[in-house]
Structures are given as C-alpha cells and as structure tokens.
Amino acid sequence: MRKVRVAAVQLTPSNVEKSLEKAVEFIGLARDMKASVACLPEAWFHTAPLSELSEILSKYKTIVEKLSKAAAANKVWVLAGGLYAAGLEGPRVVAPVISSNGEVVGVQEKVHLFRHERTVFKHGERFHLFEINGVKAGILVCHDIVFPEAARSLALKGAEIVFNPSRIVAEGCGPWRTYLEARCLENRLPVVGVNIALPRRYGGRSAIITVRETAVGVGVVETLAEAGDGEQLITAEIELETPAKMRSARLASRVPSAYEALSQPPEEKHT
C-alpha cells in the first residue's frame, strides 16, 4: 500500500537570518521523525515581510541555497513555502520544490493574490503538478485554497496530495480550516495546510488531513495531525490508495457540459 510521511513546519518568524536558521533546524527534525517531505508556510522568513521587501527579494537566492543544502544533508524533500522572488515584470510569491538531492525541480507561483498583495506582486498563470518523492503533488499558496477550481484542476491533472503553505491571521484560522476540509472532501484529496505562528497575530493551527469512507460509504474528513498556536512541527503518514479510489469515483461522476460558465470570463459590471 502506497504511503508518504509528510511534515508541516509551523514556524514563528523573526528576521531572515534567524528564521532561516530555524527552518533548517526543523528540516533536520522532520528527518528524525521519518518524514520524506517537509513543507514550510508562506512568508515564514520575517514578521513583516512587505515592510522589508527589497531586502527580502535580494536574499531569495540565499534562502533557496540554504534550504537546498538542508534538503540534501537530511535527504528530505523541502517545499519552501511562499518566498518572495524578483521577476522581469515584478516580484512574485513563489513556492520552490527542492528534491532530497538539493535540486530545485520546479516552482509554483501564487495565482490568487490577497488584497494588498495585488498592488505589489504579479500573479501566477497556472497550477503545476510535481512528482515529489514518487507522489504526484500540487501546491496552492495560501489564498489559492479559497478557489475550488484551483484544487479541482490539480485533481483532474492527477494530483494525489495538495500542500497549502499559508500565512493566516488568528481570526482567519476557522475559515481556513473550512477551506482545507472542503477541498479535501470535494476532491477526495489529502491536504497539508501549513501556517506561521505569531502570538496575537497569526494563529498556527496547521493540519494534515485526509478522506476516508464510513461503513455505509459516506466520505468524511479525517485529521491525521494538528498543531496548536505555537511554533512546532507535526508529521503524519498518509495512505494514498484509498483516497485515490474515492477520487476516481467522484471525478467520474462529473458532468462537464453543465459547467460552461467556468470557461467564461466574469461579466463586467458598469456603473
């Protein structure tokens, strides 16, 4: 039976140097806990990253290099969370995928920017599928989880698991958990949600969830591991074959011809 052990790294950010040191330490802890994949949150590297945007953009290469060395040293795949990277058209929020050999094998850009982020960053254009330690995985960066089409597109591409590196304020942790469970249930996909933890500001509550069937065939969400509101690492072993069978049956029941509005742009409203 195919399984994967994953780690959600719930960090308390400070400045880039200290946060990066802590991230490397947690990658080692993920190895000690037998995880083959460790996922970091979005913007885990600074308490107020947008206030130091120029400096953080200049340190993107350093951050990736150190995470790559940690991945190789510990033989753990590292999903670098949401980093800030410069681009020709402007900065973007990106999630590099680093193999257990320390190689960056792909990057997922954040597609749906949240509020003021739209005035700072350029959004990504598509969702990619990555083979991570032999498992087909997708990455939805923070606000991407809000949009059901995002997770569904990954399920249709063949994803077996979805990672959601996030930066969720304390008041938003309840709705965030609802989104995680909805995407898990509607797509029959295990989901790994990873948040930062900062007292009175960002609420933690990272979670590793999957889906199973009850004795009478009802699909339900099962929590495999859940963090509190402080800095910590959680791990869980996710069984992949049961969700795959459930997902195949669910997707086979779709009626795409009834969803024509999904292929149409929203109507412009004139005032």
Explain the overall architecture.
The protein has six helices and 15 strands. By secondary structure, the chain is α/β, with parallel strands linked by helices. It has a single domain, classed as Nitrilase/N-carbamoyl-D-aminoacid amidohydrolase, CATH 3.60.110. A hairpin with a 6-residue loop joins strand 4 and strand 5.
Quick summary:
The protein is α/β, with parallel strands linked by helices. Helices cover 28% and strands 27% of the residues. The protein contains six helices and 15 strands.
**Percent of residues in beta strands:** 25-35%
Please name the CATH architecture. 4-Layer Sandwich
Helix content: 25-40%
The figure for the number of domains is: 1
Question: How does the helix and strand content classify structurally?
Answer: alpha/beta
- Along the chain, the helix and strand elements come as EHEHHEEEEEEHEHEEEEEEH
> Tell me, what's the shape?
globular
Output the radius of gyration: 18 Å
Q: Class in CATH? A: Alpha Beta
The average pLDDT is: 96
Work out the number of β strands.
Answer: 15
- Terminal CA distance: 58 Å
Biggest pleated sheet:
7 strands, mixed
Kindly identify the CATH topology: Nitrilase/N-carbamoyl-D-aminoacid amidohydrolase
